[in-house]
Amino acid sequence: MPIDTDAPRIVRWTSRALPKSPDVARAIDAPLGVVVRPLLGTEDADADANADADEGFVRVKSAEHIARCHACFGYISSACVIDARGFVCATCEARTSWDACATRGGRYRDVPFAELQRLPEVRSATYSFDIAREVISTPVPAPGAHEAGIDDVAPDDWRRRADAERRRRSSPRRSDGRAVVIIVDLNDASEEYCELMRTMIMGCVEALAGEDVRFGVFAFRGDALEVLHVDADARGGGDADANNSVIRLRYFDTHANAKKHGFIRRVRDAVPRSLEDVLPSALTGRAAIEDAVENGLRSGSSGGGTSSGGTHGSSSGFSSGDTKRIFGPVLDEALGVIEDAFDEGLMSSARVLTFLRGAPNAGVGACDIASRGSSGGSGVQRVQNLDVAPPTALDFELASSEAEALMIPAHDYYELVGERCALSGVEVDVVVISDTFCDVSTLAPLAERSGGRVMMYEDRADVPVVGDVFRLLTRSRGVNCTLRVRCSPGLDISRAYGALVADTAYPGLYHIASCTPDDAFAFDCGFDAAQAANANGDFRSASSSNTSPPTIQVAFEYTTTTRSADGIVTRRRCRRVHTSRAAVAKSAREAYKTLDVNVVAALIAHHALANADEFGLVESRARALDWLVAFVSKAHVFARGVDRGDDVDVDFSLLPHLAPTTRLVYGLLRSKMLFPFAIPDARCVARSRALRCSADDVADYAYPTLTEFAFAGATQTTPIRLRRDALRDDCAYVLDAPQDIIVYYGSSAARDGDDDVFDGIIEDAVRRARMRRTFQPRVWRIRGGGVDDPTPLERYLVEDLDVEYSGRGRGFDGFVKDYLKARCREEIRMRVLGGGGVSAAS
Ligand SMILES: [Zn+2]
User: Fold this and answer.
1) Would you state the CATH architecture of domain 378-406+596-703+801-842?
2) Confidence grade of residue 36 (pLDDT, cut at 50, 70, 90)
């Protein structure tokens, strides 16, 4: 059985060889766990069924034919031992006979053994199968093509009858379709912003081109809700004036009880015929949608039906504090329309994209920004101001308590709406385009609960929101997912991290609202003491099979929508099974050697985020450091012995693959997620993304890669440390961070065609970095030597930046010299005096 050491790795272990016993695990003190990317490798496989065979992923026929263990219900896999009569389960080691399998028709019984071994589920570590599938959209028939119905066919023409019958069955039912609904905040909207929104909406139509999607646009401004209204008859008559394309409703809030606020009329009452008028088909009504969007999304005066009440006539002259933002009521109205459309059989699922320019402040779901933060009033402002001046220890303490207060949602309205959406098959994405505080931590649960994304952009015309939304809609993904994790005896999943919810009834079962091939989930593994006891405290079990290495099997079920090359859109319910084995490290040396530093960092990051929620930022940061101290100390003692404790080896010079550890933890402490001075909304978005990150992406968040390009056509590139004095004047650099790509030219490095080869290599690096990311990073080009403002790059030079442990103004060096080494020396001294633990390392 090959141990999966290289890509594609759906399950990535903290170490390729797990410590053989809890003692060895304690001796090295690395976290033990896995990062799972359940849909890794399905990007192209879904579109083309042949592609996944090449990737090593096999598709098998149907669920009921796959053998499952009678004891743990695990799936058969290449890790199982099989013979002519049955198989031994790779996870629980129970034996199941083919007769006992719930397989009909003997897929395994009475089959020659050689043939048995060739079955995909027996041969491959990963396989998937469809549980159900339905066609939800077919391409438009060519104009003029006559679709023969059954009635047109002569009764004796059985061949044509059968054709027509097949066509009827495979044609989509209208009620299976889906809808995209866009909610746009037009308060204080400039003409550029409206243009951006129009481009974005038409981009969405484009993204789903050829699919029979229903399309709705809701906009709000002041006390008015505007719903794009496509009236096919009126358009035909040629009187498509601006008012005809918008239904305008007024919001009133004269009542003292916030729950009683609302719209004077409902959208349903304003729709003359059916909800199809506000949810037109993007396939047949495309031109009408385009017209309506063009006429409807205008900045400034909104014309006709609105009163002067809360509607601002112009985009300028109002700070967001004056603006009435009725997001909650508008969302409620939009969801009402969607649910009615479900009832009417117009469609069965929907995706709602919400665009906000500030925190909601009127009606249900309003956020009282002024009272956010513990000091009441200026909390947000203080956090942001402190980012400018070098902070003192007291500042750190104050900032942490401000940040902690802002991490807690102001109320749970959006969480409840998000849950309602998840139940009814509606995903909501929250996109904030603003430079002011929007209370994202209160809004984020709406997206997180329903399976959508939280995104944030500066309020500028050139933000990449159009491209990001396009990718959001086109990228392959699964919704309504369940993840089942099974492990072999001695191993135990103790805690799960990421955008998942543990099932309350079944241990090892998790619910995930949505998942893309990029998304990852992390699990802590523990040694199950009861199981390990009968195996002498290590993984080698005394049961039936001779040796059983640590094994994890993930079974992932999800619903996905795919479009084939000929334009047929299919919704499928799939299950994907992956089995992964690690080796067993007999000694601490082997355990150290096989550690995967990025997976270790990812688990430490997940622990830190969970601790921040549970115990606050100060405690979370302290615990991350405690771990680093213990890890560095133990590795030092292991590699160099106790007597050389004077100069602690924080760079792991004898275990070079662990060298990034210290910097990764430092970067994590300085990252938006954990640094108390980060802008609160940015922290919330970073946190929401980090929870879904793969191990490598977590490492990029903490300590992005900075690559040096030496001048004069040299193809040699080197990754270097993130500090100013590492940058040379005659070189160029590319920094590859999740949200920014920065090209930096040293003052004497060539630029702009001085040397084509040189620029070509750099552009190549930028292109590759962009390709890796789902959300497009912003690309900066900065010339050194005082020509351009270096601030964007300096924000990433982590080693020049301080944490509270740095000593004043000393950055990473100060942290290592004054803090980390001293604490490690202390730790080593204590352990030597205590006498425990060290011996186990040998
Ligand atoms: Zn089993």
Assistant:
1) Up-down Bundle (1.20)
2) very high
